[in-house]
Amino acid sequence: MKNSNYILATALMAIFSSGALAEETTLEEVQVKATSEKSGLNLKKQNTTGSRLGLTAKETPASIEILDTQTIRQRGDITLREAVTRTTGITDISAPGNGQAFSSRGFTGNNSVAQAEDGVRLMTGAGTLTYPSDMWGYERIEVLRGPASIIFGDGSAGGIINSVRKQVNRETSIEALVGAGTYGAYRAALGGTGAIGEIGAFRIDASVLGGDGYISRGDYDSKKIMTSFLFTPTENLKVGFTLDHSDESPTANFGTPLINGRLSHSMRNKNYNIEDKAMDFQDTRARAKIEWDISPTLKFRNEAYWFKSDRKWKNAENYSFNSATNLVQRSSFLNIEHDQKQYGNRIELASTADLFGHQNRFAAGWEISHTDFIHSSVNGTPSNVPVNGYKGLFNAPSSPLTNYDADLNQQAFFIENALNATDNLKLVAGLRKDFINSKREGYRTNPDTDRDLSALTWRLGTVFDVTENTALYAQTSKGTDPVTTLLGMNLTNAEFSLTKSRQSEIGIKQALPNAKGEWTLAAYHIAKDNILTQNPDNPSFSIQGGKQSSRGVEFSTVLFPIEQWRFDFNATLLKARYDELEQSGVSRAGNTPMNVPEKVANAWVYYQVSNWEAGIGARYVGKRYGNDANTSSISSYTVYDASAAWHVNDRMTLRANIRNLTDKFYAALSRNNNLQQIVGAPRQLELTAEFRY
User: Fold this and answer.
1) pTM of the predicted structure, to 2 decimals
2) Residue 597, H or E segment
């Protein structure tokens, strides 16, 4: 396992040497059941993504979806990308250069669909985000669709995906997993929690995974360790710390060139990258958090953090087929390095005191962060290779040279309030003011830049409880996105302001009687102004003034119609378009943005009895376009997955998962102006054993 076993060994030593296990030689027996309570859509569970007020999904006037770890495991999902794309309307547009990226409500990429861990974001560096990826150690995923700027700032007009980690507990428990699958796949993970002395508790989660991959020379591996500590010196004070590290080398798969405009099945497992390809992402994170209950209705919170991310690429990224020579032309030979550091602090005061006799929840705070980003690169020499083969090493005159050193300083003040105006009517409002300074010290041919930006974002909403289990809601909100990443703004885009997005949304959320299920329905319209467009007076330059919009309907439900059966279904219908956009002297008005499907659906059917369960699911992604001109398209596809599990006893479960059950051949993503496409993964089988103590 590529020298990764030390992580699991370290975790085991920490768990079994803790005071929690050393104090007593005999532990009280704990009964653990394989089955659990019906989770559904978790409408009545508090979330930390849609608001800082402790509202449930039902109380929040926005589209909030909570995906718990039990459901993720039942579906056989390992990565964040796999799990999130089963939520409503979210599709995966990840490519090796951006790490992991998503499309939501017609908006794409890491500058429009944000990602966070436990409510804290790592800033996007050159369009890339890489953490978290493996879902081991996380309790749930929370997804907010639509502008999330009042909580998370700029770069979230399409929504945000927040991974919430498992919490520490003084009651000792251990869980483990081992698995193996096709294409040389392996996986092992361990997690445990317990007490430290009289006032402390800890949690450690570690995992390793890897394999050969489904394309030639497609090997990959990943390893991480997550640690958490919590101390409660008094009943009103909590002090917590986390320290994590991950090292990931994913498959360097940049896609397959199209042959005469078509994707060839014969090239499904071909890899046209260089022989000495490299791609590695290392992330280290540390956080400290204090929670102080000043009074029964007033709480103080402070969180400080430090993140570091080192990324390396060495690849031939672009491929195109030359019919005259029958060769694949390779270009964009790039050796790139990112050195990114970020630290910050968020201070917050929250109140639950009544206001004029009405229940009221209030939060206000200030956050500050600094990010340092160094971008280095060197170009290699292009080359051609046969269609049925590959050869060649990276050929460059030097090691990567520094292009620029960017500093990003951000401050934000925020305020939120939720007032129960009547027993059935809740009014929710939020306001955020951001101050941003982006500096760039250029090297080589890159000039220096210095740019100040500011943004005022807000949300107004109302929730009306028709009954105890049924709520109608409406909201309008404003968000902002940068025209490009805020880290490393160059001379061309340094004068541009933030784009502005405005959303209107209405919906209904309902929990069915007798715990038979939950469902939600939402309709929305989002308009985004000031996107980049071509200068009509000088086509070689871009200006702000373009517009794009999307409108759609989203439906999701989890049903328990009869004993032992569960049905999950969600679907999205949207119309995404450019309202004003000029490219190459041609208007793109009315066109659909590239890599945006306008129809997306997911379905799962489960059957579960006391000691075994089985399920089958489908994921549908509609037609997409490979460029903004809409002259090339990517066909829709449906992929089926299946799973089965045998609960041997209260402490052991054996599970089998099959992904892409029918071995569907399809294009997952377009690249290089649709001259090449990344082929979706073929049928894969994984067998795992899960343990609980």
Assistant:
1) 0.91
2) none
